[in-house]
Structures are given as C-alpha cells and as structure tokens.
TrEMBL record:
The keyword Protein biosynthesis does not apply. PANTHER family: ABC TRANSPORTER PERIPLASMIC-BINDING PROTEIN YCJN-RELATED, ARABINOSE-BINDING PROTEIN-RELATED. It is found in: Periplasm. This is Sugar ABC transporter substrate-binding protein. GO terms for cellular component: periplasmic space. Belongs to the bacterial solute-binding protein 1 family.
Amino acid sequence: MKKRFLRQKALMLGVATATLLACAQASAWTLKEASAPYSGTTINAIFLDRPGYAAAEKLIPQFEKETGIKVKWDVIPYESTREKEVLNFASGGAQDIVLVDVVWLGEFASNKWLVPISKFTGDPKLADPNLNLKDFFPILLDSFGTWNKVIYGLPFDNYSGLLFYNKCMLKDAGFSEPPKTWDELLNTYAPKLTNPVKNQYAFALQSRRGETQSADSFMRVLWPNGGSLLDAKFKANLLSPQSQEGLEYRQKLMKYMPPGIVDFDHAEAVNALAQGQVAMITEWSAFYPTLTDPTKSKIGSCLGVATEPRGAAGLKPALGGFSLAVNAKSSAKKQAASWLFIQWITSEQMAKPYLEAGGVPARMSLYKDPAIEQKYPFVKPMVESWQGGVPDYRPRFPEWPAISEVIGEWGTKMMLGQVSVKDGAQTIDTKVDAILDKAGYYDGKKPLLK
C-alpha cells in the first residue's frame, strides 16, 4: 500500500514537473526579451510605393514600441530598387533589410549578399518557437525565399495575377460573369466592351518597357498557351508553336486596349480600371486595396475579382512577389535586429493585422477562416492561383536582369509593330542563348536549374 502511494506520488510529481517545464518553455521566448540587447538599434530598409509596404508602415510603430528597435525605410520606384540594392552591397551602404524580388534571389544569394535564415533559426535567443515555416504557402516560400535548397528570406509582399473587372460594364454589355478563358476575352467580350469614341476599352495589359514588359506583359501570354521562355534543355523557346501563339494573341488583343498601352505601368493599368476607362485588367492581388479605396477608385461595388483566364494549357496565372532577407554585410547587431523584424512582420500572429492594413500575407492558416474569404473577395481566386501556379513563372537565376532587358526592348518593338512576332522572338532567342552560354550553362560549368 505504501509502495503504491509512493509510486502515485512520484508519478504526480513527474507530471507536475513536466507541466512546469512545458509552461516555462512556452513562455521562455518573447519578442521583448529577445530584442532587449538590440534596443536603440536602427535598421534600414527599402520599400516600394505599393499597398503591402504602406500596410507594414502602419504596423511598424507597434514593433518599435515592443522592441526599442527603430525601423527606417526609403520608398523608391520598383525600377530603381535592384540597382540601388546592388550598389549598397558593393559600397557597404546602409541597408540591413534586403527586399528580394523573386527574380533577384539567384543573383543575391549566389553573390553571398544574403544571410541564410538558419543562422537565426538555430539561435534560441532569436528564433521564435512559433515561426512555423510550414504555414507559408510552399510556392511562395520556395519561389521567393529559397535558392539551391537554402532559405534566405521570408515571403512578405505576395502576389498572384488576378482578373479585376467592372461588373457594371460587363452587365451593360450583356455579360453576367467574367470570361473564363483568354479566347473568350478576346473573341467574345473584347469587341462588345470596346468603344474608342467614348475612350472605353475592354482590357489593359500593363506593358511599359522594363520588368513590367518582360514579366507582366510578355511572360503572361506565354504560359497559358503552353509556351515558355526556355525549354526543358534550358534553351530559348520562343519559336515554339505554343509560345508563338501566345505572343500573336497579345498582338490581336492590342486593338481592344487603350492607345499608348506600351507606356502603361501598374499604376496606369489600375487607374484605367478604377476610373472606368477599361473593363478588365490582369493585375497583382496586392492592388485590391487600391481598387477599393474610394479616394482612388470610382468603381465601388462594381468591382469584381476572379482568377486570370485559362488558356490551352489551363490556369497559369502570373506569380510574383518579394521576400525580406538580412544583408550579409551588415553588422551582427543589425543582422539580429533585422531578423527579429522580418520574423515578426511575416508571422502568423501579424498575418491578420497585415491583411487588414492592406497587405497580402503568405500564411495558409489565415485564409482558412471563412470570415476572411467573405470579407476579402480576392482571397479565394488568389489562393486557387497559388495552389496551381507556376513556380518558375520567371526564371530566378542571376542572369534574369540581363534577359529582362532584352525582352523589354524587343517585346516592346513587337507590340508597336516595329518587328514581327516571329522576328522579334528569333532575336530574343538568339540573345538569351548567348547570355546563358556566356554564363556557363551549356558547357557544364553551371547546373541547368536551381
């Protein structure tokens, strides 16, 4: 009897001890305590003039109050961002938080400009036990933050291409729903939604020379038709029948787009829909807050959102976005402070506040809430797009910036009719193969895929 009592007492003591240890472990890490050694530190970042960054700016005071870490940012145009960051890396400029576009990751990581997050996740003083990397959409963490199987950044400003449309304009033209396919958009919807006399057009495809031309315009018409920039052997593929069909499609669509479409960037395309000049645009999910802002948009309750149209190859929407990473050339103190901010702004805890402030979080758990889907109409088509998207929508290797310049130049010439689609594609293919050959992809010096 006495032995049984002692065994029960020991068992209860063990359970109590385990419970106390679990509670101690659960409460062992707090952002406030983790950041105490870095209080008073100022970290520098580059932001864009887009809703996701404005959302972060609204939340940053909360982080600063909790940690004592000061976050300073410069807002610059997207077109200048990569160049400014590369100059910072080369000169040791003041940039601690690195904004990494999906197509800059290979270049930044290969040059050892970024710190692998394992440096921080392996440090119990800096690593939030609730980080939960598995909660990020795999396509976003892999595409925006992972290079050669090493994670360098966490998804921050996340995009899927969506079809935004004016329900009222479509209804007036006799349509009760948006086009489900690109073929429908061109042949059924576009003629009825275009009236140049009234300065009204069916569609606007942002196509300004530069990354907007190469990614948002050129690549957008390749994938749905089964085309691609490169084939399985890593050779240029724009003369394939599928790629040619996609590029020819864009030329046919031009007569239903506003004059000067080659000068449209994101702001111009979004504004054209917001002001009633066009009925439809394919744009990044991050612009939903702009289109619902009554101070910037007249569309109001007429706004509709759907997945991008399907092509012969199915649903192949645009994929884009950024991660936040830590500059390998910053001091150890600034690196730690930067990581604490990145970990916080992309956390599960901050996902809902970030969404409500106008950002687009990459956390799967957030979008499982039916109330979120009901409140934000763009969520359902965006999640569907991320689940079936194209991870290599744009090549992420270091040579992309050079290739993007080639496409920007010759893609624009195609749209303007200065060169035929076939001849323009041939020129791009030749130049792309030359860039990749010089980089060593065809002589075994570099692996074909990352």
